[in-house]
Amino acid sequence: MRRIIFIGPPGAGKGTQAARIRDRYGIPWISTGDMLREAIAAQTPTGEKARTCVEAGDLVPDDVVVSLVMERLTRPDCADGFLLDGFPRTVAQAEALDTASGNGPIDSVILLEVPSETLFERLAGRARDEGRADDTETTIRNRLLVYEKETAPVVDYYRKKRGLVVTVDGVGAVDEVTARLQAVLD
Ligand code: AMP
Fold first, then answer.
1. CA-to-CA distance for 170 and 174, rounded, in angstroms?
2. At 79, which helix (H) or strand (E)?
3. What's the 79 CA to ligand 1 centre distance in angstroms?
4. What is the pLDDT confidence band of residue 102, given thresholds at 50, 70 and 90?
5. Which residue's CA lies nearest to atom 19 of ligand 1?
6. Nearest 5°: CA angle at 27, between 123 and 90?
7. Where are the beta strands (DSSP E) in 45-175?
8. Fewer CB within 10 Å, N- or C-terminus of the chain?
9. Protein residues whose CB sits closer than 6 Å to any atom of ligand 1
10. Active site residues per annotation
């Protein structure tokens, strides 16, 4: 059973690596950022609630994201495990996942670590290449601050609670980082 949480600051390479883990282990990759961007594009009620927060680089309210994820985790493809990317991003979300976990406890929490100077360069590069609406300089800075304030404590939560956290160095070529992740997960 692989119930994996992927934590790391914006620009750490979570999405790139998550796609590879999904392909290797055959578990669904659940990215709350992607789910929210889809909801915004489709102008659903959830998308309308999330739009301004996502565009500013702020967190969407916990109840909105928690209900999206809980609904997703009830689908049959999550029965044998899943990879959560971008969730939980607050201690309140981690607690909600723990109490609601009909899927069973989390097996591993992987922290993808990249120094902050590298993150800003990567995010600015992605802004040029992909034109994501939340990749402007101001929102990039805000997302990095939000990570430190709201999401870094989630790592401590899992460390204290169950000692589940494994730190993986996210610096280097994409293949090198994938190899480090596989060494942890295999
Ligand atoms: P990401 O693609 O994971 O960087 O997420 C993009 C944006 O979606 C974030 O900056 C937040 O505005 C929002 N978002 C994604 N996941 C969450 C979450 N778990 N809690 C709150 N907001 C989220």
1. 8
2. none
3. 24
4. low
5. 87
6. 50
7. 81-85, 108-113, 165-169
8. C
9. 10, 32-33, 36, 53-54, 57-60, 65, 86-87, 89, 93, 134, 143
10. 14, 89, 126, 132, 143
Task: Give the tens place of pLDDT for each residue, 111-131.
Answer: 999 998 899 888 888 877 887
The CATH H-level (homologous superfamily) assignment of domain 2-185 is P-loop containing nucleotide triphosphate hydrolases (3.40.50.300)
How many angstroms separate the alpha carbon of residue 130 from the centre of ligand 1?
A: 17
pLDDT per position as a tens digit, 19-45 = 999 999 999 999 999 999 999 999 999
Please give the full DSSP string across 95-112, using - where no structure is assigned: HHHHHH-TT----EEEEE
- pTM here is 0.93
**Whether pLDDT at 179 is above 90:** yes
Q: Which atom of ligand 1 sits closest to the CA of residue 85? A: 3
Residue to mutate (ligand 1; options 34, 36, 138; most atoms within 8 A of CB): 36
Q: How far is CA 95 from CA 67, 88, 101, 157, in A?
A: 13, 9, 10, 9
